[in-house]
Amino acid sequence: MKKQLFTFAVAAAMATASSVAFGQTLDEVMERGYLQCGVTEGVPGFSFPDENNNWTGLDVDYCRAMAAAIFDDPDAVRYTPLTSSSRFESLGNGNIDVLSRTTTWTMTRDTDLGLSFAGVMFYDGQGFLIREDLGVTSALELSGAAVCVESGTTTELNLADYFAANGMDLSNAVVFVNQDEVVQAFIDGRCDVYTTDSSALAAERSRFADPSAYVILPEIISKEPLGPVVRSDDVQWFNIAKWVYFALLNAEELGVTSENVDDMLGSENPSIRRLLGVEGDFGTPIGLSPDWAYRIVKHVGNYGEIYDRHVGMDTIIAIPRGVNNLWTEGGIQYGMPIR
């Protein structure tokens, strides 16, 4: 019943917003002078504020890429930290223009809430983090354990499904409203296990006083395609959100980086010329300047640059590209062609 009431509430918010936002989001954003981006309350590598409230991360750079495409200024963004339970309502009622908050693309979210996913910025999966001194080597040994989990997430549902499917006891689940509470409870020893997306586990562990005292178990129990979300009532805005994502991937595939993008303006490769707005006009049909993708790469970089900067192997989080590699490198990231 709680889920049903939540769905109705978001649907009502969407109905209210649609009468105002239809076909107008870009105009409203440009008139306002900045993009309003919904992010996490703080997950290193994805969306995290420093002591001066400057946000960085993979999801943050997606919003910066949108701002670069629209304003030629990646800093024309303001960030709204949101809990898992409030994120969809905030997007639905128009408090934010785009949700870029480690959000899993599911059928329910894609069909029931009046929302559209622009793409998958990070292919992830749910895992389990435990203290190494517990001696646990498999998630199948967690029956009866106290498990910390955040409410209102696919994580909570996946946890219940996994334990049920394997005949395990989940009676000691400890549920919290926001992620900070979950992490603190785990650190304080109020639970034996912390479960969420594996990327978030790695990110949070990097902040612990002694990261080496904790281990991520080998089991990945779900598919968690994480990506940016917009309202479904504005096709133009959805197209912008979608093609910003594709531009990041296409730039990496074509070898166009923030360092060489100016030189690439003279390339004879038709795909590069179309991407950078030298040949053809692929901006005006979606309400942007013909050089919208050039602006993205110049200011923010391509997908690979963003990945390496925030979660790559040279960062403290150090997540291998794996399936997040381009399709040409054995992964499943694939940008639709600009032509």
In whole angstroms, how far apart are the ends? Answer: 47 Å
Uncertain stretches of 5 or more adjacent residues: 1-9, 13-22
H/E series, N to C? HHEEEHEHEHEEEEHEHEHEEEHHHHH
Shape: globular
Query: What is the C-alpha radius of gyration, as a whole number of Å?
Result: 20 Å
Mean pLDDT: 93
- Which band does the percent of strand residues land in? 5-15%
What profile does the largest beta sheet have?
A: 5 strands, mixed
Structural class: alpha/beta
Helix content: 25-40%
Number of helices: 13
Query: Order of strands across the widest beta sheet?
Result: 10-9-11-8-12
How would you sum up this structure, described in words?
This protein is of the alpha/beta class and 339 residues long. 38% of the residues lie in helices and 15% in strands. It has helices spanning 2-21, 25-32, 58-71, 87-92, 107-111, 154-165, 179-187, 198-205, 235-254, 261-264, 270-275, 292-299, 303-310; strands at 35-39, 48-49, 55-56, 77-81, 98-99, 115-117, 122-124, 126-131, 147-150, 173-176, 193-197, 214-216, 224-226, 229-231. The protein has a five-stranded mixed β-sheet with strand order 10-9-11-8-12, sandwiched between helices. Strands 4-1-5 form a three-stranded parallel β-sheet. Helix 3 (58-71) packs across helix 9 and helix 3 (58-71) packs across helix 12. The longest helix is centred in the N-terminal third of the chain and has 20 residues, at 2-21.
